[in-house]
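Extended Data, record Hydrolase
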Amino acid sequence: MRATTASEDPPAAVRAVLFDFSGTLFQIGTYADRIRAALPQPVDDTAMDLLLGQLEARLSDPAVIEAQRARDVSSKAHRHAFTTWYASVPELAPVAETLYAQLKAPEHWVPYADAESTLSRLALGGVALGVVSDVGWDLRPTFAHHHLDHYFSAWVHSYEHHTEKPDPLLFHHACRELGVEPAAALMVGDHPAKDGGAAAAGLRSYVLPAGATPGSYRGLEAVVQLAGLI
């Protein structure tokens, strides 16, 4: 029988899982609901469709595109990116700051239906948990509002480190906080380049498909399997 070489050794057991925030564990309420909450006057369905169409179209405006560059490297850049986009629609310009404030408000975020059960199973299985997110504000109040903060021992916000995923600095900082080597960590997110980029930093990565609606099941059961707990 041929001897097993070092390159054929099984991968290290998953000792830590790092989660992205938006689109992975949480999703914010729909823009239709948020716009209705922000505007002082009622908005019927026809007018809302027009507003949403304009908001989508403005993503192609040069000024809006430019404002998105490196938006998560600081709180100031993050605010500028989103308020520039909102204000590009004339009807939304007066409430651009209100719409941005909604982003930071814990009550506007909804955990996916399988978020808590997944976190609980991982924690009970002895897996350390961390958050690594490209974001412009502290996420801990949002997790606390939904009683999910106690699962996590590491919080890595891009704006606090002045860089964005897939910079290895963010992933490696989370691993150090959790006391694990990158090879024993799994990054879970919804962005192929940013979250999948953890692989270049020596971690394993799992990228969720796009398109999940707020409060739906996200398919996080797969993370429990990847951690070897099923």
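Summary. The radius of gyration is 19 Å.
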